[in-house]
Design a protein that fits this description.
alpha+beta; 224 residues; eleven-stranded antiparallel β-sheet; 24% helix
Amino acid sequence: MNKPIVIAAVMAAVVAAGTAAEASQKCSQEMGVALDNQRKSGAFRMDVFMISEQGPVKMTVDYQLPDRMRQVVTMVLDPKPVETVLVGGKAWSRQAASGKSDGAKGGEWSAVSDEVTRDLVEQVKQSVAEKPEDVGRWDCLGKLTVEGTEFNAYQGGETGPTDLSPDAQKKPKNEAVRIIYVDPTTGLPARSIFARPDKLDRPIFKATYSYPKDLKIEPPVAEK
């Protein structure tokens, strides 16, 4: 007597699972389009604030596709900016003199080791060369308002930065999620965070994206 009810329940579950999968696929496709729009912009800037083992860190990273990057990293507790420039397969770095806070001006450029250069090249590839179909799974969070501006928000099924410290296994599991906020007008990513689901207002990593029309990255003058 209960068999039709059981069958109906199973069919409802299958339909619900299919609907959820279709929704996730649609959201993932939308995120793929947004990231593709970012690559098609040709150049963009990422301003970052994150919490590291050494304390708060501020970082500005400029990308000029396909293979150029400039980043300035500043430790909040020790404001001596380190600037690194990557052009193709070559990289240079310099650190500001003590007391400098306006970028890394004043330091002398030196070539970066081959190992670090390879890491930088890989960083650029991972940041700007990802194909739309390889973005992984993303779920739609709908429209969210951040600092008075409304965005289309998406949550990725990936965790935050990996903890490589010796006692990492003893620490509570990092359950941070990644959320990207897309400008509904331009279709471009505008913000990105890693945060615990219950602490979205206090992310361990947050970035804002801008798209300067005049952004250009060149080798250091002495190296041209």
